Amino acid sequence: MATNFWSSSHYKRWLVDRATLRQARSDDILYVDHPEHLGFLNIFFANLISKLGKKLQLRQRVIATATVFFRRFYVKNSYCETDPFIVIAACCYVAAKAEESPVHIKTVVSEARMLFVEEYGIKTFPSDNSKLAEMEFYLVDELECDLTVFHPYRTLMTLCGKEGGGSFPEAEAGEADADDFDGPRYWGTGEGKLELQEGALQMAWFIINDTYRSELCLLYPPHIIAIAAIYLTLVFHAPTRAAIQQAQAQAQPRASTSNSNSHPHGSSQSHSPTRRSSRSMKKPLPQHQHQPQDIVGFMAGLNVSMPLVATVAQEIIALYALWDRYSEEPNVGPAFVQKTTRKGRSAGKVQAQPPAQATAQEGQEGAPVTPMFLVQLLLAMREQRIEDMAHPASGRPVAVNKMLERTQAAG
Amino acid sequence: MDNILVTDPMRVYRAKRDAARKRVTDKYSILGFISSGTYGRVYKAQSKDSDGRIHAIKKFKPDKEGDVITYTGISQSAIREIALNREISHENIVALKEVILEDKSIYMVFEYAEHDFLQVIHHHSQTLRSSITQPVLKSLTYQLLNGLLYLHDAHIIHRDLKPANILITSSGVVKIGDLGLARLIHQPLQPLHAGDKVVVTIWYRAPELLLGAKHYNKAVDIWAVGCVMAELASLRPIFKGEEAKLDSKKNVPFQKDQLLKIIEILGTPSERDWAKIKDLPEYQNMRRLDPFANRLAQWCQSRIQASGADLLSHLFAYDPDKRLTAAEALQHKWFQEGQLPTRNAFESLPSHQIPPHRRITIDDAPSMMPMPAAGSQVQAQVSQVQATAQAHLSHSHSNHSGKAGSAASFASISAGGGTHTRKKARLG
């Protein structure tokens, strides 16, 4: 099970399509002024889970699992009919157990209260352990007891040959597990390792962290998300991109004489020119055979749908565009800008982004969305919802109007 | 309207869910009570579907504050058992049909198995007064290893294999049960010993665990298979030691008696057998024990065929790295020669030798769930209920470790070692 994604509950029951997600938000969307606000809520909730997780000293994988639980819960429920804050706390509590690093319920309640009440002014969070335990009970039921979650981190570390720790600080150490499975993998040949620079690997890791701010974990299998994160890293990480471009320039003159037999890293599937041009990479890059590794060739050798990877990459970029208009605190932003390039936010961003995205951003207007705005929005949504449910006969058309207004505005 | 949002923001949600939820008694008729343990109770139940299938429903003990059942959080063991069972599927593992969460209690609905290894052992020692035949022994061992291979391939260590946890269906198919102590070992976030101080019931506990190893692996299950196989062959536990209890500071003591029981048969382990033994915390303690020579071959003589004895000796390799893996054990020549293992382990038996059906109690059964006819939705409380079953076991398993968290299986006798009271199940 741990090795076979295709027979997992994650694959069989918890990958959904866009229509399902739209249906899941069909009540909520009646109570927001703009559908984008739901996207901001996605970011906000993931940030909260992450913050609470860090207070509870949960590892990144546990935080990721908690986030997936949260998303799954809201495939079946509406924000406007629930209290997302108690759900967040329950997700962290269950995820810690599911990932074999349990935290005492008292600790979760007190840390969650501290975070929600003091930092966000959410006064309704209960102080009673049994309320959280009750929520856990309903949560496990909603999750249909499927508590094992696959994450892109594992694909990333395996592809990069870092399984079992290594020097990468955030890597989930495989301590005490001497007998690692090393057979064929479901996403590739199992041969060869991707040689990413440490900084690039870290960037890919952070991009994966960032994907949990969206609903990608419900839409796509984790290995596709991992490969999309690597793909974006190859573009965004300046030294890596420079190395690829350099290798490509060197290889250019020899391209006609090169063949694919002498690949040192076992990634030499058939790299015929036709096949390469059909890939979704921005431009066909000729392969090179010597140091450094032929990264493009490695990517091409993976047994995954490249159009799908490109789609996920696009969605990640769209997330960053949205996130850019969201403001929490100075130090919470898209991780790959903040933590890896160590440059000014805008400088890093502009440099990293394809031109199309950069110009699109310039066209944005209005103040950034803040947590306070979203907390107020949630409260308003809930109040409105209760009012609507309390007066069904009156048929107050408030909600419908908002949808109408949008339609009319859209022309 | 503001009131609800402030006082109980999830009330509307819960009402909606509670209304939609199908109750256990809507879906199943409870036929009777099978057994109880530290974890809760097991019932025999019939599906109200048209198939009318029989199931075993395991009800986790709800938490109580005084007499009021309250939510205190789902136990790590229940989370494990549920999470693992939802992902796995194999002929030799007890299948989980569904989980029902209702009224603060968790019900796990399993496929029903008529027998278990402990019951088969008892049937032979008490009723038939003869040993288990070699074809049956071989088939049971083979199927046990086959189920274990599946778990190990999925990176799951069972950590509580013992006769009571290994079930057999009426058609003679072995089903490994009770994953309450099992866990995934793939990329653990914490070392295994950090989670559970004591694993595996003492008689089935591998020497590396007895010697205090901080790191262990799948080999601990293989050792337990060896113990189970030997117990099937001799109808008594091969290493029946006394467990030293945790001290007041919850330190794990040196398990001198258990280790001695092992050494008396397998001989004193040498550094030649097991190079890393000298690095283990309890090594010096072990050296103070009297030395013994290996007399396993002699032990096996009247009990197991020659090649079966060879298999057993390799399951009992002291060095976990030299112990057979499940895959290797399945390739052993014992399984390739003479009568081959059969899918129905009882195939070779005349019908009168097949163990009797599992005994269930009805009249005086704990009625925590309304009995079949009762339409009442009221859930009687567990506290009102007493297990009335009694054991007639010659060697009581009641000193199995309770601290191992061993949630004994359907027919198992619950652990008596902990603080809980002893409850015994009547076995047919």
From TrEMBL, chain A:
<dbReference type="InterPro" id="IPR013763">
    <property type="entry name" value="Cyclin-like_dom"/>
</dbReference>
<keyword id="KW-0539">Nucleus</keyword>
<dbReference type="InterPro" id="IPR043198">
    <property type="entry name" value="Cyclin/Ssn8"/>
</dbReference>
<keyword id="KW-0805">Transcription regulation</keyword>
<keyword id="KW-0010">Activator</keyword>
<keyword id="KW-0195">Cyclin</keyword>
<keyword id="KW-0804">Transcription</keyword>
<comment type="similarity">
    <text>Belongs to the cyclin family. Cyclin C subfamily.</text>
</comment>
<feature type="compositionally biased region" description="Low complexity">
    <location>
        <begin position="246"/>
        <end position="272"/>
    </location>
</feature>
<dbReference type="GO" id="GO:0005634">
    <property type="term" value="C:nucleus"/>
</dbReference>
<dbReference type="InterPro" id="IPR006671">
    <property type="entry name" value="Cyclin_N"/>
</dbReference>
<feature type="region of interest" description="Disordered">
    <location>
        <begin position="246"/>
        <end position="290"/>
    </location>
</feature>
<keyword id="KW-0678">Repressor</keyword>
<dbReference type="GO" id="GO:0006357">
    <property type="term" value="P:regulation of transcription by RNA polymerase II"/>
</dbReference>
<dbReference type="GO" id="GO:0016538">
    <property type="term" value="F:cyclin-dependent protein serine/threonine kinase regulator activity"/>
</dbReference>
<dbReference type="InterPro" id="IPR036915">
    <property type="entry name" value="Cyclin-like_sf"/>
</dbReference>
<feature type="compositionally biased region" description="Basic residues">
    <location>
        <begin position="273"/>
        <end position="282"/>
    </location>
</feature>
<feature type="region of interest" description="Disordered">
    <location>
        <begin position="343"/>
        <end position="366"/>
    </location>
</feature>
<protein>
    <submittedName>
        <fullName>Cyclin-like protein</fullName>
    </submittedName>
</protein>
<feature type="compositionally biased region" description="Low complexity">
    <location>
        <begin position="351"/>
        <end position="366"/>
    </location>
</feature>
<feature type="domain" description="Cyclin-like">
    <location>
        <begin position="47"/>
        <end position="141"/>
    </location>
</feature>
<dbReference type="Pfam" id="PF00134">
    <property type="entry name" value="Cyclin_N"/>
</dbReference>
From TrEMBL, chain B:
<keyword id="KW-0418">Kinase</keyword>
<dbReference type="GO" id="GO:0046872">
    <property type="term" value="F:metal ion binding"/>
</dbReference>
<keyword id="KW-0010">Activator</keyword>
<dbReference type="GO" id="GO:0004693">
    <property type="term" value="F:cyclin-dependent protein serine/threonine kinase activity"/>
</dbReference>
<dbReference type="GO" id="GO:0005524">
    <property type="term" value="F:ATP binding"/>
</dbReference>
<keyword id="KW-0808">Transferase</keyword>
<dbReference type="Pfam" id="PF00069">
    <property type="entry name" value="Pkinase"/>
</dbReference>
<keyword id="KW-0804">Transcription</keyword>
<keyword id="KW-0539">Nucleus</keyword>
<feature type="domain" description="Protein kinase">
    <location>
        <begin position="28"/>
        <end position="335"/>
    </location>
</feature>
<feature type="region of interest" description="Disordered">
    <location>
        <begin position="383"/>
        <end position="428"/>
    </location>
</feature>
<keyword id="KW-0805">Transcription regulation</keyword>
<dbReference type="InterPro" id="IPR050108">
    <property type="entry name" value="CDK"/>
</dbReference>
<keyword id="KW-0723">Serine/threonine-protein kinase</keyword>
<keyword id="KW-0547">Nucleotide-binding</keyword>
<keyword id="KW-0678">Repressor</keyword>
<dbReference type="InterPro" id="IPR011009">
    <property type="entry name" value="Kinase-like_dom_sf"/>
</dbReference>
<dbReference type="InterPro" id="IPR000719">
    <property type="entry name" value="Prot_kinase_dom"/>
</dbReference>
<feature type="compositionally biased region" description="Low complexity">
    <location>
        <begin position="401"/>
        <end position="414"/>
    </location>
</feature>
<dbReference type="InterPro" id="IPR008271">
    <property type="entry name" value="Ser/Thr_kinase_AS"/>
</dbReference>
<dbReference type="GO" id="GO:0016592">
    <property type="term" value="C:mediator complex"/>
</dbReference>
<protein>
    <recommendedName>
        <fullName>Cyclin-dependent kinase 8</fullName>
        <ecNumber>2.7.11.22</ecNumber>
        <ecNumber>2.7.11.23</ecNumber>
    </recommendedName>
</protein>
